[in-house]
Amino acid sequence: MFSLRGIEHRYGASVVLRVAEWEAAGGEHWLLAGPSGSGKSTLLHILSGLTTPTVGDVRVADVDLTTLAGSARDRWRGRTVGFVPQRLHLVAALTVRDNLRLAQYLAALPDEPQRVRELLEAVQVADLAQRYPRQLSQGEAQRVAIARAVINRPSLVLADEPTANLDDAHAAAALELLRAQAIAVNATLVVASHDARVRPLLPHTLALPIRLAEAA
Amino acid sequence: MSLLRLALAYARRRPLATLLNVLLLAVGVATITLVIVLSHELDTRLSREAAGIDLVVGAKGSPLQLVLAGVYHADVPPGNIPLSAVESLRGNPLVGEVIPLALGDSFHGFRIVGTEPAFVAHYGAALASGHLWEAPLDAVLGSEVARVSGLKAGSTFAGSHGLADGGGMHEDARYTVVGVLAPTGLVIDRLVLTGVDSVWKVHERHHEDDEKSPLAGANPRSATAWPPASTREVTLALVKYKSPLAAASLPRSINAETVLQSASPAFESARLMTVFGVGTDVIRAFALLMIAASALGLFVALTQALDERRYDIAIMRALGASRSTVVGVLMVESLLLCAFGLVVGFVLAHGLAANIGEWLPAAAPLETGARTFRAAEWAVAALALGVGIMATLIPAWRAYRLDVAATLAEG
After folding, report:
1. Which pLDDT tens digit goes with each residue over B202-212?
2. Cβ contact (<8 Å) for B312 and A103?
3. Chain B contacts of A102, Cβ < 8 Å?
4. Are residues B202 and B66 part of one domain?
């Protein structure tokens, strides 16, 4: 579903990420493991086309990302990648329902009220559709963020530290929801986490080593 | 979901700051628009009233006063002039037409003008009923006078001495209404017209009481009660040139060679507008200052909002929004507020102009200006929307340049 080859990313003179090769098939669920600072977030951004690696080839969903630029890449991302950032970043000015509709709008996809309704039900926040993000609990907000990530039926779902600050029960539930929703849209799932509790819940793992300001 | 909906959602997030900026812009727009509407209306009215009158000729004094009294019926005339001087003007080959006016009395604040039928023809006024004056003390009412007073053909009334209400009444020489004019939208609507001889008659009676004139006891309606030809006077005369060439020499020769003074309505009203213009320039500058202040307020609000909204912009980009889309969100929001302020300002200005007579009775005739949208108002619209775009430029540039990956990571 995606393949990375000879990836190296640098900030100035220091290498922050190096991945020789990584391939995932469609529908696989992966853990991207590694301590803080190992470049997990950077790798997620590379997979979503938000960051272009200094060196290397990135193919996602049969698209060579190096050939995609500007708004074409933005549009590709909106339709291909679902993203659950660590801080969730729901848009505070919009209701829960409008946060989902915003994702459809920004990907230039038609409004699907039926899909929004079903998805809010699937993640058990249907009764919160008219609430604003500040009126939600952390767990509720995360379920909304997961719904937002899959609303456009992406083929790749990325989640950054989804279990941070959650107790065991909630951490397991969050991961279960992510997996269920990824399966529902038949997407490949990549969860970046340094949380040891996550490892047994995902079948595939790519571990990134600690990287301490290594010179290029 | 749409850019508009998104912009509205953001505006609703900060209702107080939004309202304040809209209000500031609206007041600035309203002020500048009101000045445009009123001064434009004043300008057109001044030139429309004076159309076709090349010169006003009267007693020596202030030329502006002469024009105000003779054309706009807004000031007291400088004094009287001998009828013989007016008659000799008629003989001047440069003069096309002379219409004498005898002023001095009024009726409920409306001026009584002793003149000739040519005056009615000059304003293009048609009779709505009755006929023009034939005998002394026949009066023809302008449409507004008839409407306000309720008088019609056959009614009688007494003029009061002086141009304002409250002078002594000429009860012994009552006028009889013989006709009413149709509305023209010009100053004639607010005048009572009669023959020049009527004014002489009314005032002969007056003088006779004061000075024991030789005409004592004369019947005011009898045609024998004329003052001797040598002492007949009028107040001023409206003069039309025979050809535009007269403008070069006629005013100078009148001023230099006769006891009369000539004044050009076009020149005097332009001078008046220049004096008035200083005031409107100050108001205009003040209004521009308010619009600039609203631009600054908008800029601060948007810049501040952008600091809070960095993550929103980052997540929007992550969800597939292009750089131009996030810039579009800011632009639409800013333009939306400015357009709203603009509309509120226009409505306020036209609403005020339409009702200005309520608290400025003298400006009531300018109310008609509220009904038209002036070309200059497009410039105000462009200014207000330009302000919206200007205020967005820097925040939009920052949104455009936002490092999405770094922002999402730092969150």
Report:
1. 776 555 444 44
2. no
3. 1, 6, 316, 319
4. yes
Q: Do residues A52 and A66 make contact, with C-beta atoms less than 8 angstroms apart? A: yes
Q: Is residue B269 part of a domain?
A: no
Q: Which domain holds residue A26?
A: 2-215
- Both B174 and B76 in one domain: the answer is yes
- Full-model pTM: 0.73
Q: Indicate whether B299 and B372 sit together in one domain.
A: yes
Total domains, chain B: 2
ipTM over 0.95: no
**Domain housing B28:** 3-46+278-410
Phi, psi of B374 (to 5 degrees): -80, 150
The two three-digit tokens of residue A193, written as one number: 């986490």
> B355 and chain A: CB distance < 8 Å anywhere?
no
Chain A neighbors of B321, CB-CB under 8 A? 74, 78, 106
pLDDT tens readout for residues B110-130:
999 999 999 999 999 999 999
CA angle B258, B264, B270 (to 5 degrees): 150
Same domain, B73 and B12: no
Cβ–Cβ gap A107/B320 under 8 Å: yes
Query: How far is B143 from B160, CA to CA, in rounded Å?
Result: 20
pLDDT (tens digit per residue) in A28-72: 999 999 988 889 999 999 999 999 999 999 999 989 998 888 889
Helix boundaries (H) for A60-130: 70-80, 96-106, 113-122
Q: How far apart, in Å, do the first and last CA atoms of chain B sit?
A: 25
